[in-house]
Specification:
Length: 639
């Protein structure tokens, strides 16, 4: 091996490879004798295509430029489904109407054209008989309302009727087997669905007279599924973990088992599923304690039988046909994608990888789960050490590390084969992916650590992780960086303005200020800060003292800001205010604004520019030159 300074190792993994070689795959359902799925197409302006195999080749069911993506809650979910006779039903991103498409034909609208474009949106789509059941979101002069509707599959553009409403948010609409009742999950501001929600049931003949069967403002409930006309299964976290329960219409609640594991996850996107009722009445389940485990649960006995999936650390349930179930899964050495699992034989078969190509395994880092013991509490993380078969660091040199801070903040990361991490580690830059306090996947207590403590616990825990690496002699304490997007970007900016641990940081569409943010952001998260910081006006002083933009006097290192100009969740004004504060103080920085991009970059050219700029930025600040990377120009005060 050749000795070369960490960060300057030549690597075959380019920023273009990260995007052009990838097409993240989701969904997955059986349609007749075919399997259909959705995938993101960065090279097609970031559209979501619905695909299938034809003669062994991937072919779109939904041709370009159509885009199956809904803006309900802005995060969407459940944007497409299929009819029994093989038609596609989908929400089109450009106008948010619902369409029906016979493969090979032209889409036919099922919902009327609203007076204001995209002001009426639909998600969580499912076909029931001659209707599409959906969550509808309506925007009218700044006011937002939601209900559950039935859309006539016959078309004509006007057949939409409301079934139930009565809360700020609704999810998981489920009709009873006899079609006389509807069950759903409801919650109101200021709760987020992982804080508190209710399982409601009503007769369709009198939908306003619903009954609450499970849940409260302090209990999160998800995914009701009817057992018969008088009882349901549902997920609830009254034990401190999202566990499965059976619930009867007379209000009896019985846990199927009580286990310190989450049989659920935060409901960021509608249409999610964590269990499936099998033909024999048992439940196929996914549970999480750091990583995901697939298992079959016998509701009669509470017996849980794990299904071994070698190397898999994350699992998402898709459709099922007989003993074959579709899974979106991956791991540290398993490329993420769509797989088919035969529950009888245990055979796992790839249907569609999320990658056109995967880097040579010699350049892929090993994801290692680590628990750091910081000064205040334990912190869960995954480390990825530098790895390149041709190069090693200079004698006595320690590598730079980048701490990745996930968004949410109520979210979770697991060991993954992530080409982005390999992009850094193959160049001699380590990565640590942090599940700071407030993350999901470790029970409600861990999730609630961020209540009132956003900008404190997340910062402390990320610092504990990188300092743990430095104290162990694995990372150069003078060359630690921090990177995150959205809520993770907030943590980046909060850490940089309140500590001197990091040499620099990169914030992707991060929150920088709170008073205007809660007024400017979208409805779904407009009261999220009530739990993370406190309600207004009582917590106004905390809003001001925690906001990174108000603490730039504590900033002494360069910052990279990256922002989509069409972002409705974290508007560009957030990054621009922080940029202006850095100019005023004379802090070296770069601000990259991308037209046509929203909350998460979807276009190939944007993704390439952002990652090359980030790598150049780290090199300039931490003293290495990544070969073949264009130099990012930093703003510096005039001398």
């Amino acid at each position: 091996m050749t000795a070369l300074a960490f960060g300057s190792w030549p690597s075959p993994i380019t920023a273009a490879d990260l995007s052009s070689a990838g097409h993240p795959v989701e969904g997955g359902c059986f349609v007749g004798g075919e399997i259909w799925w959705s995938e993101l197409r960065p090279a097609e302006q970031g559209r979501t295509a619905i695909c299938r195999h034809v003669d062994g080749e991937v072919q779109p069911v939904l041709p370009a430029p159509f885009n199956a993506r809904t803006r309900v809650h802005e995060y969407g979910g459940g944007a497409w489904t299929a009819t029994a006779d093989g038609d596609l039903v989908f929400a089109e991103f450009s106008d948010q109407r619902v369409y029906r498409l016979t493969p090979g034909g032209a889409p036919v609208p099922l919902t009327p054209k609203p007076a204001v474009a995209s002001s009426i949106r639909y998600a969580d789509l499912s076909v029931v008989g001659t209707d599409v059941i959906a969550v509808r979101e309506m925007h009218d002069a700044g006011a937002v309302s939601r209900d559950i509707v039935a859309i006539d599959l016959g078309g004509g553009g006007g057949g939409v009727r409301s079934l139930v409403s009565g809360s700020d948010f609704l999810a998981f609409p489920r009709l009873s087997p006899d079609g006389t009742r509807i069950a759903w999950i409801a919650w109101n501001h200021p709760q987020m669905p992982w804080d508190g929600s209710e399982l409601r049931v009503a007769s369709l003949s009198d939908p306003g007279a619903w009954t609450v069967l499970l849940g409260s403002t302090e209990e999160s409930v998800m995914q009701p599924e009817w057992i018969d006309n008088e009882s349901l299964y549902a997920i609830g976290d009254r034990s401190g973990w999202w566990n499965l329960h059976s619930v009867t219409l007379d209000g009896s609640v019985t846990p199927l088992l009580t286990l310190d594991a989450d049989f659920g996850a935060p409901l960021w996107r509608l249409g999610s599923s964590w269990y499936e009722v099998l033909d024999d009445g048992k439940l196929l389940t996914v549970r999480t304690v750091g990583t995901d485990m697939l298992a079959v649960l016998d509701p009669a006995s509470g017996a849980l039988e794990d299904i071994a999936l070698d190397g898999v650390t994350s699992v998402g349930l898709g459709g099922r046909s007989g003993s074959t179930v579709l899974l979106k899964c991956g791991g540290a050495r398993v490329a993420g994608g769509l797989f088919a699992l035969d529950l009888e034989s245990g055979e796992l078969t790839s249907v569609r990888s999320g990658f056109e190509s995967v880097p040579d395994s010699a350049y892929l880092p090993e994801g290692r789960q680590v628990t750091f013991h910081g000064p205040n509490r334990e912190v869960h993380a995954i480390t990825y050490a530098p790895r390149n078969p041709l190069y090693e660091g200079l004698d006595g040199e320690l590598p730079p590390y980048v701490a990745f801070v996930h968004g949410g903040p109520t979210a979770h990361v697991a060991p993954a084969l992530n080409p982005l991490f390999a992009y850094f580690t193959s160049r001699g830059i380590g990565v640590v992916d942090v599940n700071y306090g407030g993350s999901s996947g470790y029970g409600r207590e861990y999730r609630n650590r961020l209540r009132g403590q956003w900008g404190v616990v997340d910062v402390e825990d990320t610092i504990a992780a990188v300092q743990g690496l430095a104290d162990s002699g694995l990372a150069d304490p003078r060359r630690l960086a921090i990177e995150g997007g959205s809520a993770g970007g907030w943590t980046v900016l909060a850490a940089l303005t309140s500590s001197d641990v990091f040499a620099c940081g990169a914030s992707y569409f991060g929150v920088a200020e709170l008073e205007l943010f809660v007024a400017e952001t979208h409805d779904f998260e407009s009261r999220y800060i009530d739990g993370l910081i406190g309600p207004l006006p009582e917590a106004i002083d905390l809003y001001r003292t925690r906001a990174p933009v108000n603490n730039v006097d504590g900033l002494s290192c360069p910052v990279l800001l990256l922002q989509g100009l069409d972002d409705p969740i974290v508007p560009p004004s957030q990054a621009e205010r922080f940029r202006d504060a850095m100019v005023k103080k004379g802090i070296p920085h770069a601000y990259l604004a991308y037209a046509g991009e929203s909350h998460g970059f979807r276009k190939l050219e944007t993704q390439v520019n952002a990652r090359e700029s980030e790598l150049s930025f780290y090199g300039q600040v931490m003293g290495f030159t990544p070969p073949g990377i264009p130099e990012l120009k930093l703003w510096r005060p005039a001398s």
